[in-house]
Amino acid sequence: MIRKCKDHGYFRGEECPDCGEEGRYVLDDDREERLGRFVSGALRHFPDDVGIEMDPQGWVDLDQLCEVMKRRYKWGTMERLVSLVESDKKGRYEIDDGYIRARYGHSVDVDLISDYPANELDYLYYGVSQEEADMLLDNGIYPIRQCYVHLSTLFDKAMEAASVHTDNPVIIEVDANAAQQDGVDIVTVNDDIVLARGIPPEYLTVVEDE
Hints:
The chain contains 7 helices and 12 strands. By secondary structure, it is of the alpha+beta class. The chain folds into 2 domains: 2-102, Arc Repressor Mutant, subunit A (Orthogonal Bundle); 123-207, ADP-ribosylation fold. The longest helix has 17 residues, at 29-45. It starts with a strand and ends with a strand. It holds the Pfam family PTS_2-RNA.
């Protein structure tokens, strides 16, 4: 459920987390999920298939995306599209000067390295299964289905992400400071996620706990 507080903007849930007000209804759970799947597909995976143009940095004209959306969903409006972006706690998307893009999760090739600030944290984290850990420590971390490796800024976030796929996550610590000094590009896309084209094995170690 997405609602809008007159003082604090769009939020998800029954009441505004900042003031407790109920706010105005914008989007129910079912439509939020359907719209979310469409936006994710259009901005991350198949822009050509839905008929939108994407620039090399992943930006898409907001009006164009909205028009395509309206043809699929008669209830689709610009406000509902914007509310999906602005209420998203995971910071999946961003809107700037009439354009929209996904911050991460792309399977289509986009250049985000030149467009986001360099990571400033000394260490980053990556959660994997027990079976994967040894292979990554030997060979490094490189993307498989996506364009970028997605690293977590916090140990707990890496554990949370890995727990979706395995019951016994292994958390690999990335010496980001050393990697960047040696020329590995690592960029920050939001408070939780950092991207790289790949991390060679010499910067990786297993950590037992935070």
